[in-house]
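User: I've been trying to design a sequence by hand for this structure and keep getting stuck. Would you show me what you'd pick, starting by listing the structure so we're on the same page?

Assistant: Good idea, let's start from the same input. This is the structure you sent:
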């Protein structure tokens, strides 16, 4: 509205009849208009009487132009404010939208990471040795066929029969039936070979029957060096054991028949038999170990290298495995060699693995990559037979089940738990034994086992609670020639040779390597008396030449056959690793809250406000809908009435 137009409008209004109703209404509308525009003039005082208002207009006719100018300015400022408000609304709408989108994006990623995250293994702490189990030791003689065993059977020098036995019962390269394609020596024809094979099995059958041994049992239980012959003495926590049966048991492994030593147990006190509750006896092994060699386990072995028969290994000595007392030893993969004529220091560093309560309760075994003891039990390594669930046990079980399925036989070495399979399958021999050995050599490729808890096939995983033993071996020559005669093992070894080896089937192979040993010992009738206290005193023997001869012969034998292993805990503490959640529920909530707070200033109070306003909006919506419905109803009623 221009300035002249505004002035004419005000003057015309002042000249109108003051008392007319039209005039009053016009002034009233003008007053409202000016008041709403909030002019700086005094027209808001138009509530005065009509005469006063007329007089006011006349007196301030000169100011009407300024009031109109105020109106124009106010109207044009209102337009600018409307433009600024539009820009401001658009700007903040973009900001809020971007904040919501980015917050939603971050929340989606954080939630996705939480759902996908499982566990992580971290170093928890150092723990004392009171929480550590001292390991068991499994020792196998590399030689699994004694020459003296052939002497017992009556064909000590018959190489053909030795090869037949090796092929059929140890390596398993040929079938043990009459139709075998084994040709023996190059000078033999098929007919001669068949006769010798039949001869061998007749002799073997008679031998087993004479000893009341099942013909179906694997022959390696008879052909290997017995643990009694291998053992000289042992020391545990500074106490010496001379009786072999106190801390050993003959045990079948994937390599052959070995000797199992658990120093915490006195095996002679355990009623050994098919009904022996090994789960109970091994359950008595408690945690607790001490550091240092004096608190470790030492064993002196006689490998009887003179008694080595034909076998696949080209070396002589022992295979030794450090083992948990509830595990099946996997000798082909975990054992290390100990040579005769050496003393071996084996310091052990135990490492503990565990999982916290949240991991065990939140995740499935597949997600946490481990089983608890109650979640799985193996069919042929059951807990009732003194085993636990562990990865190596599971892999052995998987290979064992594969042998039963593919080779249609049961390995004869596995009698503790595997006897259930031997009742259903024949013992692996000949071609089936070759099939069995091939699968055992590929142990680790098979990782599915039958779980007797849920009666379903499961994948092999680790145990949530475990102890791993790392070690290294240092070796020195043994024995020392100058001091050996003064040590107690000199008399112990001489007593064994005189009373056992020289008096039995082993004398023949012994004399083929040490021809004068037995003769030298027998030349001193009171040798046992001289060694009654396990101390050799040359000065008490009248014939010094005989004494010197005995010393030299026993030393040469010891240098070729004796081996010592000293196993002890190296450090006075153990590391413990713990499986924990990669992202716990609390961490997820805190992370999500931080991201939403960063993007939108979000908090629990904001959430309460959003819920509150949503509730108000919903209430108003339903309230307006109800009012509209009532209005429509009233209108319909009025129309019907009219």
């Amino acid at each position: 509205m221009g300035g002249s137009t505004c002035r004419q409008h005000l003057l015309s209004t002042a000249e109108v009849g003051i008392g007319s109703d039209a005039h009053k209404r016009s002034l009233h509308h003008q007053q409202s208009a000016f008041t709403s525009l909030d002019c700086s003039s005094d027209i808001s005082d138009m509530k005065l009487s009509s005469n006063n208002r007329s007089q006011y207009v006349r007196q301030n006719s000169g100011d009407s132009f300024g009031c109109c100018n105020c109106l124009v300015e106010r109207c044009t400022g209102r337009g600018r404010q409307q433009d600024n408000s539009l820009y401001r609304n658009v700007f903040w709408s973009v900001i809020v939208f971007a904040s919501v989108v980015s917050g939603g994006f971050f929340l989606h990623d954080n939630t996705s990471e939480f759902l996908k995250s499982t566990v992580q293994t971290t170093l928890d702490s150092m723990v004392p040795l009171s929480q550590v189990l001292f390991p068991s030791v499994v020792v196998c003689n590399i030689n699994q066929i004694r020459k003296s065993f052939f002497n017992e059977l009556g064909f000590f020098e018959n190489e053909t029969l030795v090869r037949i036995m090796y092929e059929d019962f140890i390596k398993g390269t040929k079938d043990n039936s009459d139709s075998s394609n084994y040709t023996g020596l190059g000078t033999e024809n098929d007919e001669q070979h068949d006769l010798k094979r039949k001869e061998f099995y007749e002799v073997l059958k008679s031998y087993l029957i004479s000893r009341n041994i099942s013909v179906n049992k694997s022959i390696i239980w008879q052909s290997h060096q017995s643990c009694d012959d291998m053992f000289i003495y042992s020391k545990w926590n500074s106490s010496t054991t001379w009786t072999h049966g106190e801390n050993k048991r003959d045990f079948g492994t994937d390599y052959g028949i070995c000797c199992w030593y658990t120093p915490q147990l006195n095996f002679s006190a355990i009623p050994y038999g098919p009904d022996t509750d090994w789960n109970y006896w091994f359950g008595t092994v408690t945690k607790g170990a001490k550091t240092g060699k004096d608190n470790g386990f030492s064993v002196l072995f006689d490998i009887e290298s003179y008694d080595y028969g034909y076998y696949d290994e080209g070396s002589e000595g022992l295979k030794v495995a450090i083992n948990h007392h509830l595990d099946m030893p996997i000798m082909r993969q975990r054992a290390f060699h100990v040579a005769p004529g050496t003393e071996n220091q084996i310091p052990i560093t135990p490492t503990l693995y565990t999982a916290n309560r949240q991991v065990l309760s939140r995740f499935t075994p597949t997600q946490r990559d481990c089983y608890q003891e109650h979640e799985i039990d193996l069919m042929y390594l059951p807990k009732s037979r003194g085993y636990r669930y562990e990865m190596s046990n599971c892999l052995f079980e998987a290979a064992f089940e594969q042998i039963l399925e593919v080779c249609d036989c049961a390995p004869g070495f596995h009698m503790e738990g595997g006897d259930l399979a031997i009742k259903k399958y024949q013992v692996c021999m000949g071609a089936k034994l070759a099939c069995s050995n091939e699968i055992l050599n590929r142990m680790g490729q098979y990782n599915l086992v039958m779980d007797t808890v849920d009666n379903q096939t499961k994948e092999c995983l680790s145990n949530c609670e475990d102890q791993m033993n790392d070690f290294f071996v240092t070796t020195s020559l043994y024995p020392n020639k100058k001091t050996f005669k003064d040590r107690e093992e000199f008399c112990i070894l001489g007593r064994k040779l005189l009373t056992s080896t020289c008096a039995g089937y082993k004398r023949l192979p012994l004399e083929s390597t040490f021809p004068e040993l037995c003769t030298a010992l027998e030349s001193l009738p009171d040798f046992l008396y001289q060694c009654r206290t396990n101390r050799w005193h040359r000065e008490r023997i009248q014939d010094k030449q005989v004494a010197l001869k005995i010393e030299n012969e026993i030393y040469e034998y010891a240098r070729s056959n004796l081996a010592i292993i000293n196993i002890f805990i190296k450090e006075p503490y153990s590391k413990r690793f713990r499986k924990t959640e990669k992202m716990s529920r609390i961490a997820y909530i805190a992370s999500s809250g931080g991201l939403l707070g960063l993007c939108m200033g979000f908090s629990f109070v904001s959430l309460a406000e959003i819920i509150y306003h949503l509730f108000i909006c919903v209430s108003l919506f339903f309230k307006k809908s109800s009012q509209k419905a009532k209005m429509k109803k009233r209108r319909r009623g009025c129309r019907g009435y009219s």
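That's my pick for every position. To get oriented when you compare it with your attempt: The radius of gyration is 49 Å. Confidence is low (pLDDT under 50) at residues 1-75, 174-189.
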